[in-house]
């Protein structure tokens, strides 16, 4: 199975780290759709601060990928919900920590007025394919 970024000539260059407009996935035999993950720790409490919540949401995704016999390399799409535009840098830091500098993923970032619990600042959805 291969994931190939797709950024054809003539499309705008977004200048966003780890971003591609699309991903062509070939040879797929298994898909994983992960429901929105937030910064909830294993004990059920919410991590304190945006960066900590982003890191925990990615850690939760990592556990779900592993549970499905998959890795970060299998991620084909990321959807992000943030409640504050000012949290984008924290999100990018946590994303780079999780995926590394060179992993590009098509993603959608949506600013929302709130999430289910008022202390939640970020929610992440992932689609993976292997």
From TrEMBL:
CDD domains: YjgF_YER057c_UK114_family (cd00448). It holds the Pfam family Ribonuc_L-PSP. GO terms for molecular function: deaminase activity. GO terms for cellular component: cytosol. SUPFAM superfamilies: YjgF-like. It comes from the Bacteria. PANTHER family: 2-IMINOBUTANOATE/2-IMINOPROPANOATE DEAMINASE RIDA, PROTEIN HMF1-RELATED. Belongs to the RutC family. This is Enamine deaminase RidA, house cleaning of reactive enamine intermediates, YjgF/YER057c/UK114 family. It comes from Thalassobaculum litoreum DSM 18839. The lineage of its organism: Bacteria, Pseudomonadati, Pseudomonadota, Alphaproteobacteria, Rhodospirillales.
